[in-house]
Amino acid sequence: MREQHGLHAGFNNGPDAARAAHTPPKPQVSTSYLAQFNMCLQQYNRRVEWKFDDTVIENNVPLWTVKLVVDDDHWGYGRGSTKKAAQNEAAEQGLKRMRDEGVRMCSRRMT
Length: 111
Description:
The chain is α+β, with helices and mostly antiparallel strands. The protein has a domain of about 70 residues: Double Stranded RNA Binding Domain. Helix content is about 30%, strand content about 25%. The chain has a three-stranded antiparallel β-sheet with strand order 1-2-3. Helix 2 packs across helix 3. It is elongated, with a radius of gyration of 23 Å. The relative contact order is 0.15.
């Protein structure tokens, strides 16, 4: 019967198999600026510092602030409700700086 319907002998044709066959692929999640920035800089021997300060209060909510320093040069500033959100904002500025200066530090196209 399997051969009649074009199924292999080891093929699982239960309800899970049918569901898996018709499940659309998951959309790719875009890479965060922080991940992209780190991927670009890890290829090179650049010294990166994230200087945090959590003393900023906005609307009674403490915010993390971070200064992005690469090789003792200020590359960006970010703030957010988490350290990662603040880093992501600063990394976006770092990527823009690379693009604006025409720095070819990354094999991927910078956004």
